[in-house]
Structures are given as structure tokens and as C-alpha cells.
Amino acid sequence: MSNRPETPTLDRVHLPSDLKALSDAELHRVADELRQETISAVSETGGHLGAGLGVVELTVAIHSVFDTPRDRLIWDVSHQCYPHKILTGRRDRIRTLRQKDGLSGFTKRSESPYDPFGAAHSSTSISAALGFAVARDLGGAPEPSLGDAIAVIGDGAMSAGMAYEAMNNAGHLGKRLFVILNDNEMSIAPPVGAMSSYLTRLYTEGPFQELKAVAKGAVGFLPEPFQEGARRAKEMLKGMAVGGTLFEELGFSYIGPIDGHDLDQLLPVLRTVKARSTGPVLIHVITKKGKGYAPAEDAADKGHGVSTFDMVTGKQKKAVSNAPSYTKVFAQALMDEAERDSKVCAVTAAMPDGTGLNLFAERFPRRCFDVGIAEQHGVTFSAALAAGGMKPFCAMYSTFLQRGYDQVVHDVAIQRLPVRFAIDRAGLVGADGATHAGSFDIAFLANLPGFVVMAAADEAELKHMVATAVAHDDGPIAFRFPRGEGVGVEMPERGEVLEIGKGRIVREGKGVAILSFGTRLKEVQDAADALAARGITPTVADARFAKPLDRDLILKLAEDHSALITIEEGAVGGFGSHVAQLLAEEGVFDRGLAYRSMVLPDTFIDQASPAAMYAEAKMNASDIEAKVLEVMGVAQLDTKRA
Ligand SMILES: Cc1ncc(C[n+]2csc(CCOP(=O)(O)OP(=O)(O)O)c2C)c(N)n1
Ligand SMILES: CC(=O)[C@@H](O)[C@H](O)COP(=O)(O)O
Ligand SMILES: [Mg+2]
Of 188, 196, 432, which is best to mutate to test ligand 1, by the most ligand atoms within 8 angstroms of its C-beta? Predict the structure, then answer.
């Protein structure tokens, strides 16, 4: 397979409107070439491969039947949108995916009119499609004017409550709306839960084969698709607990299941629903994640997320690691603790591999719970596990915990329940960009009464924080750590229980103190080394806790130095804001302390490498060095104290 495939038919397609001039036979060729082009592009960029390969035919069919961008097409999560981007005028930039100044790996309103609604967190597509449908019917008509609304949502995303909230509302409103359920029996990991089993039953039981046969032949059910589809679905469900498909109960016409890789099924079904439908319709499409590329199809994760790879062998080019990843350190530390304490248990919301809990699940299957994409439920479930006497570790990415925030406040914090939040992907994450940045958790947790909020400065600190969290039974506690590998520090045999609300001095200096919260500590140390060459020797401290603050340490640093700088991998409103509040309340500013806080800027930073993103945020070692020089300039260093 050459790295740049021959794509004579795809080359004729610059925009979706070009598809309309093609015969169905030519559309088949477009789909085949689009698949090769997607594989080729991702082999150079890395990214989300399997999901896009699974919707190649669906993408061609939707764009050839519907009239995008007037018809609003909304991809749920949108990690499957690369073929869509290739067909919608972005093929010339597709090899810049997920890179600085390149195309986003997700749909993005600012990138193209063919991306009417951005996404990257799951299960928002039906709500968005319904909003467009209602805006259309109310006469809201920005350019291009509003046509149909189509949501494509995966079976994994259908585990989240939000999808049902939207369907409940859509069924009630009865608006013309299309939901395409892309069922590939995969989330990132194999999907879990009763809903997943339900979907499987819809097509694995006998009647599906019958329906499939009807669909394959003369597509005989099409003249009256809704009635026939509904009738068959009901037949299918005879003997099951419910009387019709769940979707019908919610007010949708149900069509399917149909083979999502067969354009001869997809095209007539979509043409028919477009011509005839008046209300909400759910089209249940069966696909294969990774379809058409053996290394993806054969992989356990179906090629969900890959680094750059060799197209012929599928072998991914992974960077050599110098230290264990924070995720692995967390998982290992938690397993060690669980070995000693049978109350330790763990909760993930559809991210077992990403959070390292796949390892925990292998060792302690009864104490590990994958709740599906259901962060809200995951948090409340953890709260009740804690109320029931267990020691739950609710392991979530910072960005996804946002979805469970009310539950964090209402179910955990107010009830002062000892849920342990292991917050992975804290700070800027790189190629996934702004939607996945873990920017806000310090701010949204440290303002909650009774919460303990920690950030690990390195992997040894992370191990201590896991031990601290196990021991802390008096209310909620959170610890955050970033994506990627640690700094390579020596690891303690066993995590040590830290004193709550106490930081540590890392190096003694004078004049300026830098108080770090989290893994910027390494950059701070590098900056301090560089400053030493100029004869400037800042004190460096690791706060460990944003809540409760180490008041003694902070006030002592303020007392002993002329200037204080705080730094954290989070947005304004977090650690630095709490320090500033303390300093103000204690009248320290009145006594002339120069204070600066280094936080993420008040913008959403687009995808790039984490280092480039932190450079944009002005938070790398050179920026810290510059900040020290700046603050020394304005501090008019008190020589007595210096
Ligand atoms: C709220 C939220 N939680 C978790 C994720 C991480 N995530 C991204 S894709 C994915 C699996 C989605 O599965 P599915 O919807 O079936 O799509 P597929 O990849 O199978 O096409 C998960 C868990 C997310 N994007 N959003
Ligand atoms: C689309 C999505 O939300 C996930 O696939 C995410 O990109 C995974 O991120 P990590 O690579 O950091 O696990
Ligand atoms: Mg899926």
C-alpha cells in the first residue's frame, strides 16, 4: 500500500455538492478511496482512526443525500469526523490534523460551515440537532438558512443521560429530526451496561437477519419504512420486557438495523426518510470500528487512538519513554493500596485504559466499575459508595469531570463524603486541544467547602497523594496529575501519608520565592537553575495543596522575600487566587510584597504539543525566568530581606 493512494474518483469531489453528480457506483468508489485517504492521512498525523473508518460509507451517504451545510450535520464526540473533513473542502489540510495551526481533530464551528456545532465531549449531538430543528421551525435563519438536522451518535455515547434527555424532549416536540445511531459495539473499550446489551439484542436476535435480508434485496421495506420498520422492531422485541423499541417509546420512528457499510442499504434509506419524514426518526446503523484496515480491526481498541504508523504493517511509532506515565503510577499505587485495604474501589466513566483502571480491573474485578460514559452518575455512585463505607477512587479526566460538577457539589461536597477524585489529564493535553484541556478543576474544586485539593509535582508525589487519599476519611479529597510521563524521580517503595494542608520547600534561596502547585515544578527548577547563572537564587516551594492552603508556609515566604510568584497548570480562580486572597486578608500587600500569579491565559488554546501550548500560555521555564526578572524589577528588593 503506497502512502499516498490513487484516488481518481475522490479527486473529483471538492465539496459535498460534487457527490450529487455521481452515480451510486461512483459513490462506492468514493467511499473506498476516502477510506484509503483517511488511513494515509492518519498514518502521518496520528489521531482517532478507528471511528472514522467505521463511518466512511455513512459519511458519503449523508453528504450525497442531504444538502449540507444547509442541512446541519452533527457528529457526536466528532472524533470520527476525518472523512467528513476530507469531503468538506479540507482535504488539502488533512495532514495537519491535531497539529499546531492545523485542522482540529474535532468539528469546530470556526473551521468550516460544514461543522455547524463543535464537539469532543460525547452525547451532545441530539440536543444540538433538536436545537437546530426548532430554530428552523421558528424561522431563525442565519446563512446558510436552516434545513434538516442530522445527529450521528455512537453506541458508546448512548450510555450518557444527556442523549435520553434530548430524545425525551425531541419525542415530545415531534419535530422533523434525524438521529443516526452508529452502533459498532465499541466505545473506547468494549461498551458496558444494559443499554449496550439492549442494542446488541436489537440486531443479533433472529428477526434482524430477516430484516436485513429484506433490506438487502429490493429494499422492500422502504416504501413504508416507518410502519414496516416499527412493525418488525416490535416483532423483534416480542418476548422482551418492553413493548416496542425504546426509541419508539420515546416518540421516534425506528428504522433498522441496517448495514452501515452497505451503500445499497444506506442510500435508499436516507433518501426515503429525507423525502417522507415529518417527525423524529432514529436510524439504527450497524458498523465496524476500524473497518477496512486490518491493524485497526484487529486491535483491542479497534484503532481508537493511534500515533503515526507504518501503513503497510500498521506498526505505530511510539516515542521512547524515559519515565513511567503518571497514569501508570497512579494505577500501580492504587493497586498497592487496594491490596492492603479491601475497601478501596475504583470508578471510571468509559475510560478504563486512559485512567489505568484496566489494570486495577484485572486485579480487582469486583472492586472496579466502568459505568460507561456517565460522569454524572459515576460521581453520585461514588458518593454513595463512600456513604456505604467503601473508599471509592473516582478516576476521571479533568475535562470530563466538568460534566459531573453538580454531583460533585450536591452529592459529594455538601454531604462531606470521602470520595477520592483521581483527576488525570490535568492541565494542557496537546493534540486534543481546548476541549480536552484540564484547565478548570482547581478553580471549581478549591472553592468548595471541605474539599481537599492536591496536585502532584512529580510521580513520587503522586504516589504519596494516593496514600493520603486512602487515609483521608473526613470529606472529599482530589489529586490532579497530567497526561504523559513523569520526570523520572526515584520512586518510594510505599506512598507516604502527607499532612493535610502542608507544602514543602524544595530549595532555599532569597529575594524571590516561587510557589508551584503541580508539575510546573520541573520548569520552575529549570528556571531557578538558569537564574543561578545570573546570581539570582529564588526559593522554590511545592504547595502540594490548593485547599487547605499552607498558610504558615505562604506567610513565611511572603515575610522572608520581597516577591512571591505562584504557578499552576490551571485557569485563573484557582490556587493563585486563593493565595492572593490570603495575602490580601493578612495585609501582606500593604507591607509591600510584590506578587505575581502564573496561570493559564483567559483564552482557549488550540491543539499543539503540550510544550508549545505551555509556551503559548507563557508558562515554560524561560517564561518563569522572565517573570522573576520582571518582578525583581518592580519589587525594588528590600536588601534587608534579600
Ligand atoms: C463526556 C465524555 N466522556 C468521555 C469521553 C471519551 N470518549 C471519547 S470517544 C469515546 C467512546 C465513544 O464511543 P462511541 O460513541 O460508540 O463512538 P465510537 O468511537 O465507537 O465510534 C469516549 C468514551 C468523551 N469524549 N466525552
Ligand atoms: C475523543 C476522546 O475524548 C478520547 O479519545 C481522547 O482523545 C482520549 O485522550 P487520551 O489520548 O488523553 O486518552
Ligand atoms: Mg461505538
Answer: 188
| Predicted pLDDT at 361 | 98
Please report which confidence band the pLDDT of residue 2 belongs to, taking 50, 70 and 90 as the band edges. low
Q: Please name the amino acid found at residue 280.
A: P
Tell me the per-residue pLDDT of 447-477, one tens digit each, with 9 for 90 and over.
999 999 999 999 999 999 999 999 999 999 9
Q: For CATH 3.40.50.970, list the domain ranges present in the chain.
A: 10-298, 326-480
182 alpha carbon – ligand 3 mean position (Å): 7
Ligand with the closest atom to the CA of 79: 2
CATH fit for domain 326-480, picks 3.30.420.40, 3.30.70.120, 3.40.50.970, 2.30.29.30: 3.40.50.970
Of 32-36, 99-103, 228-232, 422-426, the poorest mean pLDDT is in: 228-232
Mean pLDDT of 481-499: 97
Q: Which amino acid is at 151?
A: A
Q: Nearest to residue 35, comparing CAs of 256, 258, 287?
A: 287
- pTM for the full predicted model: 0.94
Tens digits of residue pLDDT in 328-372: 999 999 999 999 999 999 999 999 999 999 999 999 999 999 999
Query: Between the CA atoms of 190, 192, 197 and 203, what dihedral angle is there, to the nearest 10 degrees?
Result: -30
CA of 397 to the centre of ligand 1 (A): 13
User: What residue spans of 408-499 are helical by DSSP H?
Assistant: 441-446, 459-471
Ligand 1 within 6 A of CB of 400: yes
State the virtual CA torsion across 470, 476, 482, 484 in degrees, nearest 10: 40
Which residue lies with its CA nearest to atom 1 of ligand 2?
79
| CA dist 284 → 269, 281, 539 (Å) | 11, 10, 61
* 431 CA from centroid of ligand 1 (Å): 16
- CATH H-level superfamily of 10-298: Thiamin diphosphate (ThDP)-binding fold, Pyr/PP domains (3.40.50.970)
Q: Which residues are annotated as a binding site for Mg(2+)?
A: 155, 184
**Ligand 2 atom at minimal distance to the Cα of residue 353:** 13
- Quick check: CB of 184 below 6 Å from ligand 1? yes
How far, in Å, is the centroid of ligand 1 from the Cα of 304? 10
Flag the least confident range among 115-124, 168-177, 193-202, 268-277: 193-202
Task: Tabulate helix, strand, coil % of the chain (nearest 5).
Answer: 45, 15, 40
Q: Which of 57, 77, 82, 397 to mutate to test the pocket of ligand 1 (most atoms within 8 A of CB)?
A: 77
Share of the chain above pLDDT 70, in %: 92
- Packing angle, helices 225-236 and 263-276, rounded to 10: 120
